[in-house]
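Example 3.
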Amino acid sequence: MAVGKTARGDGRAAVRYLLPAGILLAAILVYPIYQLVLISFYDYGQPQAAGAAPLEFLGLDNYAALVSDVQFWTVLAKTVGFAAVCVAGSLVVGTALAVLATRVRTVPRMLLFLAALGAWSTPAIAGSYVWLFLFDTDFGLVNEVLSGIGFSGMAHHSWTFDTYGAFGLVAAEVIWCSFPFVLVTMYAGIRAVPGEVLEAAALDGASTWRSTRSIVLPMVRPLLTIATIQSIIWDFKVFTQIYVMTNGGGVAGRNLVLNVYAYQQAFAGQDYGLGSAIGVVMTLLLLSITGLYVRTQRRAGQEGAAAWG
Amino acid sequence: MTNVRRRRVRRPGRLVAEIVTVVIAGLVAFPLYWMVLSAFKPAGEIQTADPKPWTFAPTLDSFTRVLTVSGFGRYFLNSLVVALAVVVLSLLLSFLSAVALTRFRFRGRTVLLVMILVAQMVPVEALTIPLFFLMRSVGAAVPAFGLNELGSLVLVHLAFSLPFAIWMLRGFVAAVPVELEEAAKLDGASRMRFTWQILFPLVAPGLVAVSVLAFIHAWNDFLFAKTFIISHTENQTLPQAILVFFKPEDTDWGAVMASSTLMTIPVLVFFVLVQRRLVGGLAGAVKG
């Protein structure tokens, strides 16, 4: 970077422009990360939080406790599985519907976009309640319809009782409210591909599949990368839906994800040290997964990574 | 946006695709329909083992219950204040940062860009514990931003929407030609003046996209409201208002659906107001 007269002037101006956001991010994001790591090394319970007892440095004991805890591994596995299903689900549904939307006339497309906009607008908590109500054991429409068409065993079926049912239901709600982002993003990307290029390819004898793979896909890859990263980030830290729909993680914590697990350990169990250790694990997990994804995209030699850095 | 008409005008499969599209749209919209319908159903039709997908006796009873019993109006206002404050502040702060990171040359710029990229990936929910302690000590010095106060929620949501907002706006700021800035400089406009009076209106689509995401983020929050607002119940936000009707044994589903409906309306209004610009905004974010 050139260090001339302008560069120095730029530097001073940049400080002024960046300061407000910088202070806020340092205080509310960077400092808490440091604190999170720090607390995870201590025996930090209610007495310590209230300042009534001295802090005891534990080193890696909280992490050792986690690693030897069977429940932690179960929760970790469930978190990864749940997030993977949600990410894959919203990407597949969103992209497929985006492609579909480019192939239909205005009216059906508008209907689809309006419906998606509605799902997108629904606050997580409202969406959770509606889905819970639709799948309610006694008053839910879904059980009623299923038993009505011959699945008599589904009358009074509890969708939230067993783990697969509960996670499946939450995943469906999460996909429902997060695929619209993918749909809108991918639709914008596909429409931005110049029609002339596709026409030229068709004249050269390229099949629809071939031009999709060789022209459309490379051009929408940056947007697909963003959609994927956003989905990973959102779905790994779903809190509201799991907490509300499975009533705080289900009976005996059967339906916990890392997020809710950390919250329960810290605020219900009053073990902030252990809760922080879970938070650190979660952060590292999320950073490595997104980092890995960005790297594979970059290695693919596409612009996707360029759009991100 | 330039809409390029596709060649495929008449294809036998299109009608099938259109029917499929409409059916899917119906399925996607159905939970919303059910929410609104249940909110208008009379009490006897909601909690029944034989629910019907229509009602012949719509009533406002559930809305009346929500609005009179629970202090819903107050919670609604709290949510609105927090969300709008986050929108306005994140627009201003992210715009300034995006300008600096796009148009200024200075040492450490690349490092900052990478940091903002990484910041987007930090699971903010994991920071609930340190933030709880931070807000507790902030409250001792500046009460308006401490625990139990709306200011704490504004700060947290603001910080969390900033990295993505900055990243998104960068593309828009970069797309404004440099010649425009040079011309403004020749005309004697200061840098600040150029930034606010010329650049700010030019990146409007980006600002729209940023404000939508910031609004939804703050409006949806359940975790931080639950963690920070503990004892001053008058400062709680909407999610808590709904919890009142949600009991394990005897849930008032009519009221839950009515409050869910009321909670969805502001976001929907916001979306409808900006939807035309949103698609362009999301697409433009990466083109620049």
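Chain B touches chain A through 107 residues (CB under 8 Å). Chain B is about 75% helix and 0% strand.
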